[in-house]
Amino acid sequence: MSAPRRRNSRGPRASGPQPVAQAPFGQRRRPYAPVEVISADQVEAIHQAALTLLSTTGFRVLAEQARALYASAGAEIDGPTVRLDPGLIGERLATVPATFTLAARDPAHDLTVGGDLCVYASVGGPAYVMDNDRGRRDGTFEEMCDYLRLVQVLNVIHQEGGCPFEPMDLPANTRHLDIYRAQITLLSKNWQTQTLGHLRTMDGIEMAAIALGTTPEAMAERPALLGVINTNSPLQLDIPMAEGLIAMASHGQPVAITPFTLAGAMAPVTVAGALVQQHAEALAGIVLTQIVRPGTPVLYGGFTSNVDMRSGSPAFGTPEYIKAAQATGQLARHIGVPFRSSNVNAANEVDAQSAYESMFSLWGALMGGAHLLEHGAGWMHGGLTASFEKLILDAEMLQMMDAYYEPLDTSPEALALDAIAEAGPGGHFFGTAHTMERYATAFHTPLVSNWDNHPLWLEKGSVDARTRANTVWKQLLATYEQPPLEEDRAEALDAFVARRTEEGGAPLN
């Protein structure tokens, strides 16, 4: 598969595409304290229960290399089971950095992880793609490239989330190479890599180093990749995930240790019990990163939710999900590790259910103090599908949250006593000097409901948000300009992909 350079898959760009209203790129500071849904005593009780679980029941680790690393740090090894003493855990947590940066190909897109800042990442990992025009289907490489182009032009999205959906028209063993090259060449933003096994992970690290004009070893001083490591809940780390974790940590690249703890299925049916198990699994993974390379950046990933007990299918955007997300933020702060959460839903259509479940998830994550919002835009079907329209609607919700973060102005001008006097009792403010001076900037400008940008509003009847979003993503795609990449680096990437493809890529397990 040739490198996707300087082209637009939708054909020649229409002359003079209408601009879509967006705020400029940049992380916005959360000015509010995170919501705390459990007490300090409850946080400590969950933490102590997780420590007890790791020191007694233990954690099954299937990779011999990972077990040897745990053993070297003083863990007790009993066959595949690793037991961790609370003192060992505390010692290793002490080396986790509270904040770190992620480099992008364009330094203007570098990111800070930690503090009161959050990284908004697009959806990553679904099997399918959907849009209004063709419905849900297997994705192709060219469609995936279009999704990446939209991620590039949507200013509110800070980071690409690790391949929007699988390009099923490419061979499974080598498609990651073409995905990485597309992420590098179509984006100037930071992007996430895949961490399934040693080879696939190392390919991402090496290609990122080529793109940045450095070496895999030197990237430890300037982290540029982030990967997600999922434990096999309950209480297990498999071989491919362990290999990916070790490869990333060995090169100083951050990972988000994320147990997949669904209450009633892969974790206890109570939220508290699910949080105990999630905390234990996260601790075990975080400790391993610090054994491999002390000081390696790492995040505590929270993904605890419930399942529909009638069908067993995952449920997201539920009261249990938001409570677990915010409690996880408290647990992450308790151990001093940055926190990853997600914007998720279980809806099958881009409809009211998808909107309210996503808004609930988004609120829970951001007001829970998340430092990485995974699947921030585009997630559908409980993670099975990436939607073009949902990408736009979620981007709009992210812009709304950013607008909510703007500090309240209580200056004399904002208090507006003169304007109130000018309008007088029973008057109105449409024509006051105070209003007219702020006419264009007073309020948040939406992506999908701005009259000037979307003439569909002026047609007979009205259109729904999903239809408007379909118009917006095509309008945005027409504005895409591929960011330049140094020719020698582009050639080196092509040569690397050709060599690794000839070698057979990476195994499927």
Summarize the structure.
The protein has helices at about 40-55, 65-70, 85-95, 140-155, 175-185, 200-210, 240-250, 270-290, 320-335, 350-365, 390-405, 410-415, 415-425, 435, 465-475, 485-500, and strands at about 60, 75-80, 80-85, 100, 110-115, 120, 130, 135-140, 160, 190, 225-230, 235, 255-260, 260-265, 300, 305, 315, 340, 370-375, 380, 385. The chain is α/β, with parallel strands linked by helices.
List the helices and strands and how they pair.
Elements lengths: L39 H17 L2 E3 L2 H9 L3 E3 L2 E3 L2 H8 L6 E3 L8 E3 L5 E2 L7 E4 L3 E4 L2 H13 L5 E2 L14 H12 L3 E3 L5 H15 L12 E7 L4 E2 L1 H12 L4 E5 L2 E2 L7 H22 L5 E4 L3 E3 L6 E2 L3 H17 L3 E4 L9 H15 L5 E3 L4 E2 L4 E3 H18 L6 H4 L1 H7 L9 H5 L27 H13 L9 H16 L7
Parallel strand pairs: 1-12, 6-19, 7-21, 9-10, 10-11, 11-13, 13-15, 14-16, 15-18, 18-19
Antiparallel strand pairs: 1-3, 2-3, 4-5, 7-8, 16-17, 20-21
Helix pairs in contact: 1-8, 1-9, 3-8, 4-5, 5-6, 5-16, 6-7, 6-16, 7-8, 8-9, 9-10, 10-11, 11-15
GO molecular function: methyltransferase activity
Family: Belongs to the trimethylamine methyltransferase family.
GO biological process, one term: methylation
